[in-house]
Amino acid sequence: MYLGIDLGTSGVKLLIMSEDQQIIASANQALSVSRPASGWSEQDPQTWIKATSDGLDSLAKTNPDALKKVRAIGLSGQMHGATMLDEADKPLAPCILWNDTRSHKEAAQLDETPGFRDLTGNIVFPGFTAPKLLWMHKNNPDIFEKIKKVLLPKDYLRLWLTGNHVSDYSDSAGTSWLDVGKREWSDDLLKATHLDRSAMPSLAESTASTGKIRKEVAERWGLSSDVIVAGGAGDNAASALATGIVGEGDAFISLGTSGVIYAAIDSYRPLPQSAVHTFCHSTANHWCHMAVILAATDALNWYANLVGSKAADLTKSLGDEIREPGSSLFFPYLGGERTPHNDAGIRGALIGLSHPDDRQALTQTVLEGISYAFKDGIKALEAAGTKLDRLIAVGGGSSSDYWLTLLATILDKQIDRPQAGDFGGAFGAARMGLVADSQGDPATLCTMPPIEQSFTPNQALQGSFESAYARYAAAYSSLKDL
User: Fold this and answer.
1) Can you give the pLDDT at residue 42?
2) What pLDDT score does 279 carry?
3) Quick check: 260 and 245 in contact, CB under 8 A?
4) Taking the chain (482 residues) in consecutive chunks of 10 residues, what is each chunk's mean pLDDT?
């Protein structure tokens, strides 16, 4: 058996997977976020340990035999969080999370510093780890002086499990301290935030062993003392392995709260000016390109609340067959936009409204607008040299046949919806545990799921949608100036 642990923002999920990759059991424990000031977002790292312990307690009660057969543990986690530890490995302050924006000035400062974009392959975003430490240096020097280690969230769980300070390349690529091309810490980038390598964990591949679990952990839950913990990965890189995204040309599109297009690539090809993330992938000697839109189903849910309906009912009302695009346009920039604009100040809009626009017509408009935002992301990926023919669709929005046909038509890609299953970080983490234990080939062990249905472009309507997308793209500069 193999245990996957996914440390998310809203909860911890634990999943036991058999050697033939069947899901045997799972447990979920909720987490809360503290927001003590505007733009701040924090969690107490001890709550991660408690939630994971509670999840293990639950599995020990419901599936004790399966838990005792675990040979390896894999980790997945929310990226970018700054967990600052003293010399005794105790947290000095709450972890500053990925969606905390207090360090926006420090991020801009670092982004303008020569070397950061060149070495990291990315814009320095406020959510990344390095600007948080620069903010701490400026605003809490007493705490900063006591920092001995900085760990990402899932790596704090690893420290508890094994006693080792280790991270993987995929998660570390989101710190703004990693030379992503060389896959090593950069002394120059660390120096810019008043740190050095002594504050960093050692680095390992996602599918490599990073040590055995501590005696106390093994005894408490009846685990073998030989259980190893794999390097693990950031949440999207773990989900990539869950969906079989291993090598060049493999990609998924996630229709979740935010929208993500994640593509594995076999060479380092950064294009930071387009706000495409270029990170290390969770397989050795591979990288990834990632386009992110900040509001996907989040924008649909906003509209559903506005009209007093459920998002699923709105999409069902459209049927399965797409139709000509409407005259109105929706821009899903409810909280800014990431790829390709990197614009925190832009806000959403509905334009071109007319008398015939009813709830159904505007539902269509909203889905079209989100899909055009994904097309912006696809174009940014293509500018970075990533060519994709097909995408595996995951996330809540993938249940809509209408939306997947619309996306296939607008993106000019085949969209494949897998059969029902778990394609999240916990399953990907369990797969990493399997690879670490067996020392097998990820391409062989982390296969794509069976496909339930494929959606292809409606060629008769592609010209109309190209024209509508051109209007959408041209309107950005006008919205930006408002």
Assistant:
1) 96
2) 97
3) no
4) 95 96 96 92 97 98 97 97 98 95 95 96 94 98 98 98 98 98 98 98 98 98 97 96 94 92 96 94 95 93 96 94 95 92 90 95 98 97 93 92 97 94 91 97 94 97 98 94 86
| Distance in angstroms between the alpha carbons of the first and the last residue of the chain | 56
Q: Which long-range contacts (CB under 8 A, 24 or more apart) does 44-48 make?
A: 44/91, 44/94, 44/95, 45/83, 45/91, 45/94, 45/95, 45/153, 45/156, 46/91, 48/7, 48/12, 48/153, 48/156, 48/157
Report the C-alpha gap between 264 and 233 in whole angstroms: 14
The b/e string for 44-71 (b: 16+ C-beta within 10 A; e otherwise) is: ebebbbebbbbbbebbbeebeebbebbb
User: Which of the following is catalytic: 111, 171, 235, 250?
Assistant: 235
What are 250's two structure tokens?
A: 């493999």
The identity of residue 297, as a single letter, is: T
Is the separation of the CB atoms in 79 and 10 below 8 Å? no
pLDDT of residue 252: 96
91 DSSP 8-state letter: B
Q: Which residues of 121-148 are buried (b: 16+ CB within 10 A; e: fewer)?
A: bbbbbbbbbbbbbbbbbeeeeeebeebe
Q: How far apart are CA 130 and CA 194, in angstroms?
A: 10
Are 269 and 385 within 8 A, CB to CB? Answer: yes
pLDDT given for residue 463 in this prediction: 97
- What pLDDT, on a 0 to 100 scale, did the predictor assign at position 206? 98
Q: Is 235 a catalytic residue?
A: yes
Q: How far, in Å, CA of 9 to CA of 317, rounded?
A: 32
Q: What is the pLDDT of residue 335?
A: 85
φ, ψ for residue 23, nearest 5 deg: -80, 120
Please count the residues of the chain: 482
Closest CA to 81 of 22, 141, 41: 41
Residue 91 structure tokens = 């947290």
Query: Which ranges in 308-348 belong to alpha helices (H)?
Result: 311-316
Nearest to 137 by CA among 84, 64, 212: 84
